[in-house]
Structure prediction request, 266 residues.
Amino acid sequence: MQKLLLVPFFLPVLAAQHPSTRDLAEINWMEFREWVPQKVTTVLLPTGTLEAHGVENNGADITAPLEIARRMAARVNAMIAPVVPYGVTGILDAYAGSFSISEKAYRAYMSDVLEGLARQGFRNIIVVNGHGGPQTAILNELAEQAGRAHHVRTLVVNWWVYCSDITLKTFGEDGGHAGWNETAFIQAIDPKLVHKERYSDNMATPRPADGSWSAYPFPSPIILYQSGQGYVRFDQAKAEAYLGRVTGKMTRLVQDTIDKWDKMGL
Ligand SMILES: [Zn+2]
Prediction:
């Protein structure tokens, strides 16, 4: 006797609770259409640059916001846009492997990227910025313009400034560009990106007080926010605690901001 193979023809199609990927470069267009904007209205846009970073990788300003976006996406129900890796670097652009594009090109490109995300139906565009220098002011301005022009809600956040209280709490001192805090952040993501054996305190210079002096190129790739603080010490446990706390605080900011926009009917 032939055995009957029971084929479950009428399996109920269960609605998926989350998309198969949060990455806009990985999702298929048919799946995208099912999720955006009906069920996902937020997009995270990581931005960075290539710039000398002490003993970190030159792309630290790309590595950090990408990791924050990946850790945050499901928690705030967001998609992740491909990173914009090129940026407006500033006073460290003369260092080997550093790279800067013109402000004119950056403005034109970024405003088109923001418009494109708005056209896809995203209501909340969260720029997770990894690089300061001249880039922050440009991004703030472009995001505000995009919000006004395309009726979307935008947030630009510089993680290392927003989380400076966590730097103090974790390391007991302030940090710096490529200082202990930022180096720890990268060390926690991937220790291979941090070259401890190449480090010396001579690679760091305190940021000059406003109006005191200005040098181009800046004489060292590590720029301490305060004199005597932020020299890199390598502590994997502190690094991992820092990454977790920063990601937590960033996630809460995005969620709180979206909740308030919703409550205010914006
Ligand atoms: Zn950096």
